Input
Amino acid sequence: MTTPSQTLLIHGWGANHHIFDPLQAYLPAAWQKHWATPDLPGHGCAPFDGTFNIDSIADQLATQLSYPAHLLGWSLGGMVALSLAARYPDKVASLCLTASLAKLMASSDYPQGLQRVSLNMMASRFSEDYPKYMHEFLQLQMLYADPSAHACLSSLVPAICQYGPPAALNAALYALEQADLRPLLSSINCPVLLIYGGRDAITPPRMGEYLHQQLPQSEWCLLPQAAHTPFLSHPDEFARVLSQFWERYS
Output
């Protein structure tokens, strides 16, 4: 087995680096020695200066990469990974996007987007009672999960919630709603793995299919029973596909 030189896992909106904790048990131990799971600004233990800019975050993360890395980006984290890959192609060996997107809202030239979003309500609930509503959110994503995957929630929710509600909830949500990374896609020439859940209502498969059409070197993987957290609900299959992809490009 080949080991990646460096691996960066970038979490999504409202969560923090602990969202990837359960995935570690499903990947070869050798890979874990080479990965980093940073917190986005205002999430987890990362400081927040009042601004949340996807390109600026990509710039900051790029300074941590001394040689080409494998990036895994979930949801909003995938948008950060896309920006990093486009802006610093020499620092990215491969890219895995799971439940991610180039643009959230639908438009006349982008019917793949959402007509409306309920994330504002989620932001309000997270601010009100973060542990309760984070647990509810994750339970919802696990409705069609592998039976063994449910056990992770009892330890995962306290780990995520130990820092309290993210300070950047609203700023990061605004950045997510305003971002349009479609112009970047044709310039991303590294290998890309797209893993999506067939039951995802937040970033439905059509968003991933759009990326598959636009990214020159992309591979498509649909987990039919997964929702917005495929790496939690179907960790065995997710880890198998991801490991095979990483090994091919390490």
